[in-house]
Amino acid sequence: MARRLLGADSATVFNIQEPEEETTNNQEYKVSSCEQRLISEIEYRLERSPVDESGDEVQYGDEPVENGVAPFFEVKLKHYKIFEGMPVTFTCRVAGNPKPKIYWFKDGKQISPKSEHYIIQRDLGGTCSLQTIASTLDDDGNYTIMAANPQGRISCTGRLMVQAVNQRGRSPRSPSGHPHVRRPRSRSRESGDEHEPIQERFFRPHFVQAPGDLTVQEGKLCRMDCKVSGLPTPDLSWQLDGKPIRPDSAHKMLVRENGVHSLIIEPVTSRDAGIYTCTATNRAGQNSFSLELVVAAKEAHKPPVFVEKLQNTGVADGYPVRLEGRVSGVPPPQIFWKKENESLTQSTDRVSMHQDNHGYICLLIQGATKEDAGWYTVSAKNEAGIVSCTARLDVYTQWHQQPQSTKPKKVRPSASRYAALSDQGLDIKAAFQPEASPSHLTLNSGLVESEDL
């Protein structure tokens, strides 16, 4: 009609019919490889983490189930892209023997079965659903369902992308529920009309990776990593207890090529303790997360000191021997043993190294041999210093001596008044020599001449 009245060359016809791809509220889409890796990581962690009690009235007994089957999905969750205010329903079907318990999560955090925002349902055929009547921008994220029974766990995830209603040239939804009308590109736009404004797509920031609460020792390094998505690329800012953090020699803010933002604090001091908030902002909105940093007091380091040193020791061949001492230090030092220039790194059945929590150290040798003789060194080392102590071990050969005979002395009869002393085996002549050596006092088995006295 317009072409007949105005002429074919001057008339432009606008198609106000809604495209077929948007005739339904929930538009399915494929996630990117980056989003798929994130989804896989979420599922991996959830399947190995403890969970709160499920809303299902399913109880498992102690007795094993015959023909038990781990949970599996007959129908998995799908990914949806919708506009805020629209309803959305995630649906899947799960089976297993015994009947699995069902748990729902959003971005790795469990959704309470008593949630007022989400409607969680499950029918007898195993179909499970999670529904929200009116989606908001905060509903944007990854939704995971996990099924568990005594045979195992399994999970799958659906991505929900919520867009603002004014994106892509849309007008706000009318109360009467009429469909939105979108103008396709006219011929004049396609021919290069630069005066018509270009419509852009904006996505509110969303944190796909965020750290939890941290405890760091004073003087150490602290690193907080996060990753955020959004269009245009969001700007990040950090706050400590509500006060902005400015980069300086101890506080650095980095961005890696893979999009991970990092706040690095080195060294950490007691003033760095508190509540940290990271805020991501772009033209579509903002998002934030918070964590608490606890700074543990720094230990007073003390270098090692030998309270009791090793002592030089001698032992007979074949007998056990201990080289022992006591050392102190903060933190408790590491102990190293050496024989001459050779390190003793491992204990054996014959030579073993021992120490306790009170500083006692010991090198035990079972059945010492001549090869064990030598200089032994023990060293104690910690972050504050190192100290060493050395001792000598001698191994003696045992001498097997015959016991001395107690045979009585033979004394020739004499009328001498010293005869009684000679009967007791005393060499009177040797006893009265002033320059005699002690060796002359040894007993002789020969006869004693009384006339020599």
TrEMBL record:
Ig-like domain span: 71-155, 205-296, 303-394
InterPro entries in the cross-refs: Ig-like_dom, Ig-like_dom_sf, Ig-like_fold, Ig_I-set, Ig_sub, Ig_sub2
Record field: compositional bias (Low complexity): 168-178
SMART domains: IG, IGc2
PROSITE patterns in the record: IG_LIKE
Bias kind Basic and acidic residues: ranges: 187-200
Region feature Disordered, mapped onto this chain: 166-200
PANTHER family from the UniProt entry: IMMUNOGLOBULIN, PALLADIN, CYTOSKELETAL ASSOCIATED PROTEIN
Protein name: Palladin isoform X3
Taxonomic placement: Eukaryota, Metazoa, Chordata, Craniata, Vertebrata
Gene: LOC101655982
